[in-house]
Amino acid sequence: MITSRQLEYFQAVARELHFTRAAQAQRIAQPALSQQIRKLERQLGLTLFERNNHQVSLTPAGAALLEHAERILADIVAVEEEMLGWTSGVRGRIRLGAARGLMPQLAKTLVVYCRTYPQVEVELREQNTEEMMADLLGGRIDAATLAAPPQRAERRIEWQPLGSEPLVLIAGPDTTLGGRDRVPVGDLDGQDLIAYPPQSAIAAIITGALAEAGAVPHLRFESREYTTARALASVGLAAAVVPRSVAVAPGPPVGVAVLEPELVWTPALAWSAVRRPVPALSAFLDLMLAGAEFLPGDNPDV
């Protein structure tokens, strides 16, 4: 029977793809770690790692085992934290992923949460939607504020919408686009525009709208950060499409225009459907989903 310790050793090597670094992370001698991995491979009758010229890589069987190992080890931690929560009140740890455009709103919620539950340790990662979905399914994070809802076919994830918000066009105040109140998406054809990485949910919304309008802008810059996009737009280097709350927040001056047709993003709060939330996570989910809108909401006056 495979033990949790064997899975921990296997997970360490799979993450590092280096036996010495994995041994250091597990505080075990490297020969002993190698022996444990060989023992696991003999038990399973499978090769889990390819070892060639001092390089280590996962075999297909190893990749499949890693998915199970991460989920099992995450469940063990969750069981321990849930039992601790039952005996000692709401305490333990929650691991969160967050979309960049939601960080200001999430920070306000976390202030309330941390004051209410000071014995809970909060870990927060800023990620794109693709990364957060992978980490939710792998048990590496407990909940995430996604920039777009998960696919309906994904039954391993529970989610609730967090409101909706228009996406608007920003440009330098002295530019042609920056002086307009409304801009048809088709008018972005040939314009200098700031792009976002293809894994971004906002990028997918923008790309779809541009394609539908038959517009092909000149993508001069790519950025992962809305603050960077606003700084570039402010000085007239290119226009950018951002959430309305980003456009109207204090910062470099920009002209703000409503896009026609209006583009809207609908972020969501997501968590695992296959693992019962521990008390600390349940308290966070309740706080996020209770009360008023998480986002500023629709407002035509920009």
TrEMBL record:
Source species, domain of life: Bacteria
SUPFAM superfamilies for this protein: Periplasmic binding protein-like II (SSF53850), Winged helix' DNA-binding domain (SSF46785)
Pfam families given in the database record: HTH_1 (PF00126), LysR_substrate (PF03466)
InterPro entries: LysR_HTH_N, LysR_subst-bd, WH-like_DNA-bd_sf, WH_DNA-bd_sf
Coiled-coil regions listed: none
Family to which this protein belongs: Belongs to the LysR transcriptional regulatory family.
Cross-referenced PANTHER family: LYSR SUBSTRATE-BINDING, TRANSCRIPTIONAL DUAL REGULATOR HCAR-RELATED
Any single Gene Ontology cellular-component annotation: protein-DNA complex
Species of provenance: Kribbella kalugense
Gene Ontology molecular function: any one: DNA-binding transcription factor activity
HTH lysR-type domain: residues covered: 2-59
Keywords: DNA-binding, Transcription, Transcription regulation
Protein name: DNA-binding transcriptional LysR family regulator
Keyword DNA-binding applies: yes
Keyword Metal-binding attributed: no
